[in-house]
Specification:
InterPro entries: Beta_hexosaminidase_sua/sub (IPR025705), GH (IPR017853), Glyco_hydro_20_cat (IPR015883), Hex-like_dom2 (IPR029018), HEX_eukaryotic_N (IPR029019)
GO molecular function: beta-N-acetylhexosaminidase activity
Helix content: 25-40%
Organism: Castanea mollissima
CATH architecture of the largest domain: 2-Layer Sandwich
CATH class of the largest domain: Alpha Beta
Shape: elongated
Family: Belongs to the glycosyl hydrolase 20 family.
Strand content: 25-35%
Radius of gyration: 22 Å
Protein name: beta-N-acetylhexosaminidase
Number of helices: 7
Length: about 260
């Protein structure tokens, strides 16, 4: 009851705060989430996104970066997001459509670890290709998320004449899911990790086991899961764990497992 009351008060407060703003303050800019540390758009403009728009990382090969580029290109081309409050800006078809986003990463070998450099710079000029530069692959993923939020409409439009530099304030940004007290299917876990990624968080703390249940199938000790899980269809196999870890890496999210053995 208290939580419901608190949520209601919070929503009302947010609505009142937005309504109290001048119309120009609400409508004049595109909202990027989370708010970048540097956002420069001196003359809000937009142009069409080319029907042949592409994202490429010239001469740079990285399995997780390639996966992210493919994912974001598909998202950009299919979502056709319509903003709740359309931005007020100068839109003209005389500006050529944006054809390409070029991605450049300085260090392709940096692993995803605590306090890894996730900074990036995104420049979208009024003419020519857009450029995303990052120190690491993980920073490039944050920049791809930002770029995707700057595309909207049908036909697709993209903000131009824009410069963004961003870096997280905290090295650890994440959520925890307890699958001991409540079992969640693998697809639900993947969907949660995806949500963590689009919010530019980087940690999925997976509290796998506890005294309530032991859903992790350990091949060397199969009785732990056979006798400790809620049921034979509520287990995480080694293949499931590998799938979750790889999915996390593709989305720039570290999987931190927590295993209580035995839980008391």
């Amino acid at each position: 009851m208290f939580l419901h009351f608190f949520n209601s008060i919070l929503i009302i407060s947010i609505v009142l705060a937005v309504l109290s703003l001048p119309i120009s303050a609400v409508e004049s800019s595109i909202q990027v989430w989370p708010k970048p540390r540097t956002f420069s758009w001196p003359q809000p403009q937009a142009t069409l996104l080319s029907s042949t728009f592409s994202i490429s990382a010239p001469n740079q090969t990285h399995i997780h970066l390639s996966s992210a580029i493919k994912r974001y290109l598909n998202l950009i081309q299919t979502e056709n997001h319509i903003p709740l409050v359309p931005p007020i800006l100068n839109f003209t078809t005389s500006t050529p459509p944006l054809q390409t986003l070029l991605v450049f990463v300085s260090d392709l070998t940096a692993p995803l670890h605590h306090n890894v450099n996730e900074s990036y710079t995104l420049t979208i000029p009024t003419r020519g290709p857009a450029n995303l530069t990052a120190e690491t692959v993980w920073g490039a993923m944050r920049g791809l998320e930002t770029f995707s939020q700057l595309v909207w409409g049908d036909p697709l439009r993209v903000a131009v004449g824009l410069y963004i530099w961003d870096a997280p304030l905290f090295g650890h940004r994440g959520v925890m899911l307890d699958t001991s007290r409540n079992y969640y299917p693998v697809e639900d876990i993947l969907r949660t990790i995806g949500a963590v990624s689009v919010n530019k968080m980087n940690v999925f703390h997976w509290h796998i086991t506890d005294s309530h249940s032991f859903p992790l199938l350990v091949p060397s000790e199969p009785d732990l899961a056979a006798k400790g899980s809620y049921g034979p269809d509520m287990l995480y196999t080694p293949d499931d764990v590998n799938k979750i870890v790889q999915f996390g890496l593709d989305h720039g999210v570290r999987i931190i497992p927590e295993i209580d053995s035995p839980g008391q």
